[in-house]
């Protein structure tokens, strides 16, 4: 018995058929698009099937099958037609004024706030007569579309050092060429201190995580003293050398350097490039002379970071990991236990050392901070 006579004969070219087959079995595409792809494929593969049979197989209404068969034949598309939607409630001028308001400070409008919210913007917009009524959700939607987030903030710091580029450039060169220099017997080493690490003993025992509950740490604690962590990071291979001290003076720094220079991890090097900030602990005016008086078997070069530029020091990334992995939550009976935990952590790091993937290069630095004359010369 012959099949039903369709008004349209569905034909799908091979290249589009392949695309529709992928779409028809997708778990990530919108379900409506998957259904439409299956409708077309079934119409192409089974021309003898009725509209009802295709609808039953796909799991939709016959009217849906008819609509997208017709749309494919007439337009070659499976997309929805644009819809007019509801009329705009607020003119563009209102949106522009509220956006301008969001890009200003609340105190400029006599409000005792530091940050905006959707509700606060709505309140001020009404007070200023920009609009008589508007929902905070509408304002938030507008700002989201414009990628404006006046309720968020981030801290930033600009180095006042007039020789910022001049000091930072050689350090970034060392980072970029660290693997090659390492093979030639030259090690780039970042050194800094994490100061005043407190040992806190909670007044109640810390409880480990259980089902549906995180780790429980008592909010009240007793201070058991503080330590200063000195750490050196070899840039090329990620190996660290760390020691703890009770204080952080130049005397402790010299003791740390003597331990580092005599340790096994620096054996075989011809040159050690020390990357330091100019804090008082490092005694910038005395350090060079003191190192020269040691008569070491290798050369030591000192590279001073610009003022307020600790973000250029790779060892700060190690300190961030220490804070997350060891010091949060802070639960130690005394300074000795804290020191043992820290040294054990660095031993574990050195069992599987990983160099930091540093992506900030001298080229990026010069492009952002150097004058145009310097950029053209570079």
From TrEMBL:
<feature type="transmembrane region" description="Helical">
    <location>
        <begin position="226"/>
        <end position="246"/>
    </location>
</feature>
<dbReference type="InterPro" id="IPR038717">
    <property type="entry name" value="Tc1-like_DDE_dom"/>
</dbReference>
<dbReference type="InterPro" id="IPR047655">
    <property type="entry name" value="Transpos_IS630-like"/>
</dbReference>
<dbReference type="Pfam" id="PF13358">
    <property type="entry name" value="DDE_3"/>
</dbReference>
<keyword id="KW-0812">Transmembrane</keyword>
<dbReference type="InterPro" id="IPR009057">
    <property type="entry name" value="Homeodomain-like_sf"/>
</dbReference>
<keyword id="KW-1133">Transmembrane helix</keyword>
<feature type="domain" description="Tc1-like transposase DDE">
    <location>
        <begin position="189"/>
        <end position="338"/>
    </location>
</feature>
<keyword id="KW-0472">Membrane</keyword>
<protein>
    <submittedName>
        <fullName>IS630 family transposase</fullName>
    </submittedName>
</protein>
<dbReference type="Pfam" id="PF13565">
    <property type="entry name" value="HTH_32"/>
</dbReference>
């Amino acid at each position: 018995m012959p099949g039903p006579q369709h008004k349209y004969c569905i034909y799908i070219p091979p290249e589009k058929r392949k695309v529709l087959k992928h779409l028809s079995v997708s778990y990530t595409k919108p379900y409506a698009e998957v259904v439409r792809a299956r409708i077309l494929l079934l119409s192409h593969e089974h021309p003898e099937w009725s509209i009802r049979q295709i609808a039953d197989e796909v799991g939709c209404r016959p009217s849906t099958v008819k609509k997208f068969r017709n749309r494919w034949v007439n337009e070659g598309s499976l997309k929805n037609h644009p819809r007019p939607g509801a009329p705009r409630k607020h003119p563009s001028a209102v949106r522009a004024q509220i956006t301008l308001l969001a890009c200003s400070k609340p105190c400029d409008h006599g409000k005792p706030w530091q940050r905006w919210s959707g509700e606060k913007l709505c309140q001020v917009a009404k007070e200023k007569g920009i609009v008589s009524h508007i929902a905070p959700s509408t304002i938030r939607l507008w700002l989201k579309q414009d990628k404006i987030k006046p309720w968020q903030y981030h801290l930033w710091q600009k180095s006042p050092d007039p020789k910022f580029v001049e000091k930072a450039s050689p350090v970034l060169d060392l980072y970029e060429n660290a693997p090659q220099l390492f093979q030639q017997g030259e090690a780039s080493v970042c050194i800094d201190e994490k100061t005043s690490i407190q040992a806190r003993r909670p007044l109640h025992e810390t409880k480990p995580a259980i089902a549906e509950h995180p780790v429980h740490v008592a909010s009240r604690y007793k201070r058991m003293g503080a330590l200063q962590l000195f750490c050196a990071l070899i840039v090329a291979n990620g190996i660290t050398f760390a020691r703890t001290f009770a204080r952080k003076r130049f005397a402790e720094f010299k003791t740390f350097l003597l331990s580092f220079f005599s340790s096994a991890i620096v054996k075989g090097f011809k040159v050690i490039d020390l990357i330091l900030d100019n804090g008082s602990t490092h005694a910038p005016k005395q350090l060079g002379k003191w190192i020269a008086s040691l008569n070491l078997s290798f050369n030591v070069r000192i590279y001073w970071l610009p003022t307020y530029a600790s973000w250029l020091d790779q060892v700060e990334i190690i300190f961030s990991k220490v804070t997350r992995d060891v010091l949060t939550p802070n639960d130690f009976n005394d300074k000795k236990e804290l020191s043992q935990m820290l040294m054990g952590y660095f031993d574990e790091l050195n069992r599987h050392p990983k160099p930091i993937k540093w992506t900030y290069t001298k080229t990026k630095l010069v492009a952002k901070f150097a004058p145009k004359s310097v950029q053209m010369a570079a």
